[in-house]
Amino acid sequence: MGEEEGLHQTQFLDTMFVRGLKRKCFDGEEDIEGTLAGIKAIPSYNLQRQSLLDMSLVKLQLCHMLVEPNLCRSVLIANTVRQIQEEMTQDGTWQMINTQSTGQASLDRLVSTDILCRSSRDQAEGKHVPAYGTFNKDFESDQAQDSSETMSTAPSVQAPRNLQSNVWEMENPQENKGNFQKSLDQIFETLENKSPNSVEDLFSEVDNSYYDLDTMLTGMMSNTKMGHCDSLETFSSPSNTASNSNCKSDLNDLDHIVEILVES
Amino acid sequence: LAGAGGDGGGNNEVQWCFLQVKGAIDEDVAEADIISTVEFNYTGDLLATGDKGGRVVIFQREQETKSRPLCRGEYNVYSTFQSHEPEFDYLKSLEIEEKINKIRWLPQQNAAHFLLSTNDKTIKLWKISERDKRAEGYNLKDEDGRLREPFRVTELRVPTLKPMDLMVEASPRRTFANAHTYHINSISVNSDYATYLSADDLRINLWHLEVTNRSFNIVDIKPANMEELTEVITAAEFHPHHCNVFVYSSSKGTIRLCDMRSAALCDQHSKFFEEPEDPSSRSFFSEIISSISDVKFSHSGRYMMTRDYLSVKVWDLNMENKPVETYQVHEYLRSKLCSLYENDCIFDKFECCWNGSDSTIMTGSYNNFFRTFERGSRRDATLEASRESSKPRAVLKPRKVCTSGKRKKDEITVDSLDFNKKILHTAWHPMENIIAVAATNNLYLFQEKVN
């Protein structure tokens, strides 16, 4: 119970959140209780805040293909991202992202996002959310796998077009299609050049401006490639979005459509 | 308006009995059947529902017979019609959903009934009329409608009206289109019964019921630069008595009251309602859970009620700095906000409603639970709309969510709540204690237990 009170003091976590971290990130390493006993134990708070940021950015990118997304929801998520960004800027942790040290730490960050994406029921039952579970297996077991195969299960591939065209305002749909193709090419080019082994390489190339919400929105509005490509780069586990998509059953169609698009 | 029982003065708590349930029993819910709005008309004799498939179903209350005055009327289907069809916006390459977002009745002025129904983009005025007679003995056409040969018309006769089986027809009388760039979330009929407002995420328009080719923009919060957008309109409603006054709520938890007499464009509010944030409970989710999903004036017009993610607040229109009453709907979810954000439930838009006498308010929750709050006595109840407790006249047993470690018998733990079973739409009969609760694709009707 004391652990949970500590959580409440961080104003941020729920029980599921912490249990997940315990299983994956801190197994056999630090004592979780020791870490969380204090208010705002720095590593875990930052980690979870980063996870929330990742999740929020994924949510912004994932839009319904055919129907205009909910503007209220998008605005609320964008405001959350902005809040996190402001706090990270004040904390000075904004700089820490660039100097992210070991591949192990990066992997932890990926994994913690993994935990976030699982529903609490699946957590309790130890189940894998199906499509997500598949990706997880691919990523962990087969490092040499062609990245484009990974992309085929990621509805976030749709993201560039949808992000820029649907989140705030529709621009010319013709332009969007052109940019989508351009973004898609850039994504493949980028991923093919990197083997998933060099996770730290992926992170070391993080463009700070990716986290700049205004830049991202500007990127959307003026149809530049900046926001989308980089954001997909830094989502080193882009198929996390697949698990988010399972939260909405009608996005299963999205996977199918993306597969078709990518193969063509 | 005096409610039948459940009044303020120290009466016994209202007990609810199951009356009816409408809708399919299948476990497999067809998306189109999901109810998206519920609304009683001004007398409570008619109850309209709209669904995701764009259909409107109207139920009518059976007349009580004089011989059995205590036998309360049941609601049976009166009319069903397709209000909106899916559309495709070719310019944006986007579908326009046919889902009915809101239905609002007009007060009855003649034999026919009128209602407004809206999807994301288009509002329609429907006339629902009964036909129980038909004319026979036309001069120019046969009984089956074929034109008669002119030379066969040898005499003039006056057609006579003959009774026929009751037929209820719904016909679209007006279509109010092309006035909203963003998704319509509210419509509200003015007390002048001649105008109404429609609100989308960024704008509110004023319409005259007779005029479809023009509407007046009365609120516009769209920033010049969309990148600066941080707040949207979430709901709007006209004051029940003052035809120049309306309110609109925002995603930042604020309510603005506007007076149309002061300016043509009501971007300047007359009153601004906001409760200061409690700094000790601030989190990254604070803004999201403060977003108001519904705003409703009391019947008296003295108060308004707002629903945010975790609570319902009653505001006195004369006090802007804080609500006069706050009711916690499901406070146990506060520690689960991260999960609810992840699965998008935190964005669910719950509605709320007043009873006829404004003494009690009701709103929905998860696991097919809904909550009633008696304002005077501060009694609250958690009830469930489920097939299991759907025996005729069965009294609803209060439910309880277990928030601490030890779960008592009949309690439900927070972790076993079904977040897919959400009650977003509820309605209360304007004069009696009859409530309609939409649980996904089923409509439950409950009435007060009569001893």
TrEMBL record, chain A:
It comes from Ficedula albicollis (Collared flycatcher). InterPro entries: E2F-SERTA_domain_protein, SERTA_dom. Residues 45-92 form the SERTA domain. This is Cell division cycle associated 4. GO terms for cellular component: cytosol; nucleoplasm; plasma membrane. PANTHER family: CELL DIVISION CYCLE ASSOCIATED PROTEIN 4/SERTA DOMAIN-CONTAINING PROTEIN 2, CELL DIVISION CYCLE-ASSOCIATED PROTEIN 4. Transmembrane segments: none annotated.
TrEMBL record, chain B:
The keyword Translocase does not apply. It comes from the Eukaryota. InterPro entries: PP2A_PR55, PP2A_PR55_CS, WD40/YVTN_repeat-like_dom_sf, WD40_repeat_dom_sf, WD40_rpt. One of its GO terms (cellular component) is protein phosphatase type 2A complex. Keywords: Repeat, WD repeat. The keyword Repeat applies. GO terms for molecular function: protein phosphatase regulator activity. Belongs to the phosphatase 2A regulatory subunit B family. This is Serine/threonine-protein phosphatase 2A 55 kDa regulatory subunit B. It comes from Ficedula albicollis (Collared flycatcher). The lineage of its organism: Eukaryota, Metazoa, Chordata, Craniata, Vertebrata.
